[in-house]
Request: fold
Amino acid sequence: MTVPVPEVDSVLVDGSVLSGQRRVVHEFLHDRDGTTLVVSTRQPAESARRTHRRIVGRESAAPDETPEGSDGEPTPLIVDCVTGAVGRSPSDGPHTKYAQHPSNPTSVGTTFTEFLDARDDGTLAVGIDTVSPLLMYADASAVFRFLHVVVQKATASDCPVVAGLDGSAHGDCVVAQLAPLFEAIVETRRAEDAREVRVAHPEPTEWREL
Reply:
């Protein structure tokens, strides 16, 4: 990974979309052991899967319907929080499950738990691409409870978890409320024509180009 994220089980990546936050989230997932599981709050399942493969350099992977990519990489699992929000109700598949709506963090958490419980003792690397859409529909306390469930269940099952957040869109109070759930905080920013990243907690590092 471009940034030396501490070897911890839970990481919050705070930064705007254009600052490289999403890249750090997906690289974290790729670098950890286990099958990638993305809770996608901005993109439907197929787009989220393509985004992950593009960022980590797996665009040549086999189609989503196959259990393994051409390089032996397991197909990323997706909790789709978007499709239900536009009125569609597709059936769940082996690699995709559909939550009701970003306004219902409980539904998102339940759908995540279904994947976790069905993992057959295999390890998952869990990522929430961005928490920000959840905060548009639900208050910070409800999102805190959702994140608490995800982080606790994932880490209790020896599955690392990372979440993205655009803190600038929600204010310092929201970031301060959610941050204690995570062992490490990574920040990203745009500086002139470059994107930069640093570890903010527990041991702060200098900004470096991403």
In short: The beta strands are 10-14, 35-40, 77-80, 96-98, 124-128, 161-165, 184-191, 194-201, 208-209. The chain has one domain: 10-209.
